[in-house]
Amino acid sequence: MRPALKAARVPLLAPEFGGGFRVARQESLWASGLGAIIQLVKISQLGEFGLIDRVAKKIATAAGRQPEVWGPVKIGIGDDAAVWEASPGLQLATTDTLVQDVHFSLDTAGWDDLGWKALAVNVSDVGAMGGVPRYALVTLALPPATSVEDIERLYDGMLEAARAYNVAIVGGDMVTAPIVVITVGLWGVHSEGSLLTRSGARPGDEIAVTGRIGDSAGGLAAFKGEGQPSPEASAYMKKAHLRPKPRLAEGQALARLGVKAAIDISDGLVADLGHICEASNVSAVVRVDALPVSMQLQEALGDRATEKALFGGEDYELLFTAPQALMQAVKASLECPVTVIGEVVPAGPAKVDLLDRNGRILPWGKGGWDHFAPGR
Ligand SMILES: [Mg+2]
Predict the structure, then answer these.
(1) d(CA 263, CA 345)
(2) Ligand 1 centroid vs 69 CA: distance in angstroms?
(3) Residue 24 has pLDDT above 50, yes or no
(4) Where in the chain is the domain with CATH 3.90.650.10?
(5) Which residues are registered as beta bridge partners of 186?
(6) In the chain, which residues fall in CATH 3.30.1330.10?
(7) How far is the CA of 266 from the centre of ligand 1 (A)?
(8) pTM across the whole model
(9) How far, in Å, from the CA of 117 to the mean position of ligand 1?
(10) Class in CATH terms, 206-362
(11) Class of domain 14-190
């Protein structure tokens, strides 16, 4: 279904697209326009309406292939707000922002990769609650010199993820800024099984992760020239960093099976397990030699592979806890690797202990990604 395209009330950004930077008013400015696309034209030349029209057409083309998620949409891009018919039950909402030179570099990430990742990390959050993603709003802050082709590519990647995870992009905002900032807000529903929360862990639960961890940090290290990965290992890890695949179906399966506690690994295994411990008022013991680390990461970084797996972040694998019998059912049910890495113990205070193969506690400093830590 093609989203409704109606003229916005006020052309908010046209002057800024042509010149200097200032903070734009935060109002919806999606609208129709007549702008024709010429490759490598700057967005300041195309103008706001032409750019939005181009994006809206791209989204409308993709929408035709997703009738189930677009069916309940009454108004998409082009009015003051998107409108859809909500299904009964719990509604979920999340948002995540990628900031140039904080979360990504245009030297290493392609625009299509950025589009994929901006949506995929939000899908990951919905999956980590056991939910089903539905509707997204996309806000872009862009330097005026950004080429139209780059924005086309950004939406190519984003729509690839939207199709893969059945999400409808129903609106957003565009503003000028000195750097690129991409914010996605994502709404979803929770219809089946238990809600996966950070507060659901109980003493005696086993702790497990899906897939392999550390590859994203390994990819970042490869971009920086660290380690000695083979070309194949380097490409594998860089892809893990640029194109994370959220464990959406797996999160929904955990919910169906009755798992209560989960989080997606964005800040790093230790940091995210710490979030579960604090919310659940429990502590955790992790056996470091049980961590599922890929051959590629091991080959590239040797001893430092473990550090990447513990503290690296941006793996978007699921970290969850469950009693032993339920964990067996999860392992039998999920198609991806599920590795038990430790167990939940009574709190006092909530902390994460890392054990070596001899059962000794390994000292560790502040790990994972702390957005507000000085010196980052
Ligand atoms: Mg998360």
Answers:
(1) 18
(2) 23
(3) no
(4) 206-362
(5) 94, 136
(6) 14-190
(7) 6
(8) 0.87
(9) 14
(10) alpha beta
(11) alpha beta
